[in-house]
Amino acid sequence: MTRHLRAECALTLKILIRQPGFWVPTVLFPAMLYAFFGAQSDGEWAANAMAAFAVYAVLGVGFFQFGVSVAQDRECPFAEWQQTLPGHAGNQWIARVVASLVFVTVAVALVVALAFALGRVEVGAVALVRLAVVCLIASFMATFMGIALGSLASARAAVPLANLIYLPLAYLGGLWVPPIGLPPALNVVSQWTPTRAMGELGWAAMAGTRWDFGYLAVLLGWIVISAAAVVVAHARRRRFA
Prior knowledge:
Largest sheet: none
Distance between the termini: 31 Å
Mean pLDDT: 83
Structural class: mainly alpha
Helix content: over 70%
Number of helices: 10
Number of domains: 1
Shape: globular
Number of strands: 0
């Protein structure tokens, strides 16, 4: 890791950590929802509920921690000045992904710790490692989706737009209710959402079954689409700057 990249990572983390009113709710909210709803599950779905709220935590960090902050940075003089500093332009985006992984780790760990503390889940270390891999892949998708949102929306519009996308995605993905409970038409749409892919991979980790490469492809496709949206948005900004 170069000196410039280390400095960019440290700066991004410091800026976010010094805004506890911004990141604390984002990190705590999934665990709180799990305590209210997911912790009531029994049997096989208890582990699935833990996995569902773990990937839900990943989604929240991507949308609110980075979607909103990127939109705010676009209207911040300091962020504009920062663009003129020496160093590779990609360092800023790498730093955001690194920061995302830090906050995702905390949010997911809280959900998992709460699940075990309440005694609702009995899964082995292998299942937890596989769930961690799913959350790692999902964090790239959620972070790029958040950055894409922040690159296209204004600071004022970012929060309502994040809610407008984030909440329906969580429902369509079967993260709040099992996919079997979705209406048939919505279940068809659900198959193509990133949240359904995240959920199915997480549930496979809990069950000890093979990952469905179709869902891995869906997740990869959303990563590519989101990254392309970010590139286009920034190319457009440079053109009209």
